[in-house]
Amino acid sequence: MEINKISDILYKSGCSIIRIGIIILMMLTTVMTVERRWMACDIWLFYVIPVLLLFGFAVLIWKRLKFDCTLTDIVIVVWFVYYVGRTWIGNEWPCQMEFLKTTELFLLYVGLRLAFHETNMSARLLVGCILVFGCYEAWLGLSQMYGDNVSRHSLYALTGTFLNPGPYSAYLMLGVVVGLVAMENMQGVWRLLIIVAIVIMAIVLPATWSRAAFLGVTVVTLFIYRDKYCKYRYPIWGAILIVAIAFYLIKEGSADGRLIIWKSALTTWTGTPWLGVGVGGFYHAFAEGMAQLYTSGMDFYSADVPDSAYNILIKIVVEQGVVGGLVALSLAAVTLNGLSRNSRSLFYGIVALLVFAMFSYPFDLLPYKVIAVLAVAWSESFGGKRLFEIGRSQLFLLSAFFGFASWHAGKIVDDSYKIEKGSYMAMGFSGFYSIEDGYEYLASESDNHEFLFDLGKRLREEGRYNDSNAILCQGTRCSADPMFYVLMGNNYKDMKHYDLAEQAYKKAYSVMPNRLYPLYQLMMLYHDSGDTQKERAMAKRVIEMKPKIESPATRDMKKKAMEII
User: Fold this and answer.
1) In terms of domains, do 454 and 388 share one?
2) Per-residue pLDDT tens for 531-543?
């Protein structure tokens, strides 16, 4: 009996230590340097997922347990199956990176869910990690402001481990919200430490000028303390409304630009509302929507080439349709319901992230996906209600399948990471990028618009105009940048296909009507083709148009137009 007790104690202690280590290691990935496409952490996660599956399966075998499947588990599986279906059925947009990142998210949930099965750990460790790493991000931002560390964006003083202050602010917001809720149940030294952490993050947050982060903190704070300010709610709401209007006016162009992104993408979506345009098709949908709205007389002065949807729900609806949107809302509802029962701190933290995601792109980035998956996997393992059980033999087959899939996906990501790490320097700076290498890497970089643009440009420089246009056309399927069409027009012009060049330039202008360059190229096309009447008419438009950004280049274009008139 004594041996059995000692063995049981060692087993429980060992499992607890391993699970604590898993949480800490996962949270460490959230403060690694964030990149636009792949990070080294992505590769590491794909290779760690099989280890999580093995650990979780071994624990179930040791305890002779079956896996308890919850409603959240079912909804997540339904969502992923539908997502895979919309990726492969219908319009096949280039979306390898997005598909692999979503697969990473799903496999990570499965691995953590199995590793945390029937855990009795409280949420305090995860909450504590969020606060500690939030303070680290705040310290890093302050050191960047004072010159001790270098910001990762030339236009902004602080970015933390992120590429700009927008997504960086979400980490500070998350820490403040989680701390405010956790503080309510703490006393003594722990309460004081949490207050200090909140103050540290709250001091840095305003320097990011992130309206989405301010909104997330405000919404959660108002709800948490609703009973305490109920008597003065109307003056408080009025003051918040005034501040919100002021924030809008301060950065009006940015807000209007996002409205244009949403309206344009939804305009295209109306053609296929139930199933959407297909996974990876958001940017093409935006471009086509802009071209449709161009004739409506809408003001496009604030528009710019989007690098994100800036609204997670709109992106899901546009790409996956009403069906995908309903599945996503169902998933949000069941996960939040579970979190509200098991941890108020994590519940309000995820709510704040969801509010933030309505105006930004936190769930495009690895740190926030890891935090969300950790929170949900812990919650379902800690207090999820069992619907049915999965036997050990079935679980072994599923674990083996998911482990193999994760390992194989990790190899693909590793190859892409190495290609991008080496090719950006070659293409972007030294100019010695080989066209042969470009075609070799094309399969891995088919959704990388920068790669496609650079390769198309290199092919044009070599006089391979048709090959260049084939690559540039592929770029228009994963980017809304009008320069793809402009470069295609230049190729057609050099081949003396003036009608096709005219169509390409007009398409470029309709996609982004606040750009002067497509009109300038049209003017020069008419000049080269000898169409004097159209040349003068276009020169007049070039002179009269007010570009979004004045520069020496736009002034030179207008000067050339004046010479023609």
Assistant:
1) no
2) 999 999 999 999 9
